[in-house]
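I am still getting used to backbone structure tokens and would like to learn alongside you. Label the sequence line and the structure token line clearly, so we can match residues to local backbone shapes. Go ahead whenever you are ready, and we will take it from there:
>
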Amino acid sequence: MKDRYEITAGFVPLLDSALLVAAREKGFAEEENVELTLVRERSWASIRDRLAVGHFEVAHILAPMPIACNLGLTAPAPPMIVPMALGLGGNAVTVSDRVWRLMAEHGAGGDLDALANGAALRQAISRRGGERLRFGVVHPYSGHNYELRYWLSASGIDPDRDIEIVVLPPPDMGDALQEGAIDGYCAGEPWNTFGVLERHAHLATVKAAIWKSSPEKVLGANSRWAGSHPEALASLLRALYKASRWCGEPRNREELAAMLSGPAYINCPPQWLQPALSGLLRIGESETREVTDFFVPNAKAATFPWKSHALWFYTQMVRWGHVEHDEGHQRIAGNTYRPDIYREALRALGIAMPSASAKVEGALRIETPVGSTGALTLGPDGFFDGSLFDPDDVDGYIAGQIGR
């Protein structure tokens, strides 16, 4: 008889907790002999703290946060690994109606184009005569913060001088926007859709337009627990992968939205979740836009923990002064993501997996079959400004960004 594993996972009420919720609710965890307990938390700091003190073995967590913990940038800092990603995309940049009208005067359109709308935002900021806009992000060490900064900087906006960036819990952002406490925010779903439907906001762009096929949330595991419970972790990874396939099936979207909207999870109307799951986004009061790759749970190796993703986040930590760049720090960042554990755990499922552990980010301009069988398709994975990130040349990439 197989061993049974008890695992407690923390999560924040967001769409991209879907794999954990589906693993529990659809029986995939049970199939792998995992008794999975899910605990909802309001903030990422609480997730980090409870991982540190052993209340959670694993958690739905911001992709850069385990790296920041291992680099000693945040305390308490549990030693962490990332053996799996929890999907690609899922974020958007939302602005107030007032800011959107200013952007529209300078050419912003409803196509969510990151290049054109970034240029329009730059012009709107220049019209304010030195009064800075304020944007919210969910945590300093978040994909939201780094992708927002990347978009702004590549659009000619200095994110430390031309605007102010503040930290807020995701559920508070729409209300803060309506009250005028912030002018925009970068957050995960359903809080952008909430802003549009309930707070007269407008989507400016989306993560899938800033960096296609880019990472967002991951499974963070306390490395001490993972090292002493390898079979339990492997069983959980198999359950989550099965859940990712279920979540990625279009026929399951309505059921998934209803499941996630329940009081134990996101606790919101299902219609707040359906746009992101279908890719048919409400972007303004009477506008919709189809973004088919807005949130990707399974396709395009969406659950694979690429070391190049970890290293890109590390370059942004260096770029924005969060950590000094040196060989040791780079090694810690890259080794936080563990594709070796992913491969070993999922080998029994017979699925197509990347043979490499890192790739040049931005090199794939179209969907590209990879491997000898072509059973796995990756990309496109480009940055909106056309740049490339080669994980074999971290020094050069950092040098090219500093001072831009």
In short: The chain has a mean pLDDT of 95. The radius of gyration is 20 Å.
